[in-house]
Design goal:
4-stranded antiparallel beta sheet
Length: 96
Amino acid sequence: MKLNYEWNQNVIDISETEVLNDIEFSIKILSPSHFEDMRSIEKIFESNHIITDVLVYTYTNHEYRVIVRKDFYRDFILQLMKHQLLTKVEWKKELP
């Protein structure tokens, strides 16, 4: 099953790419009310004992490059949802 998500294009611009054993996200926060959300998400993953679960690189203008280990993909997506950066998260059955 594949995890699909949707977002409000006035709040966030997001794309993802699979790179070896990781998923790499390009994220830009567009809404000032959500500018601190990525920092909060980063702190959540920094506070656990696994150093390489989610790596967040911060750029100017609220842009981020985020590298997520595949085994933490769901956790990261759910944190985006929790902070209302995503509007919908659902499992889709992949066709054979």
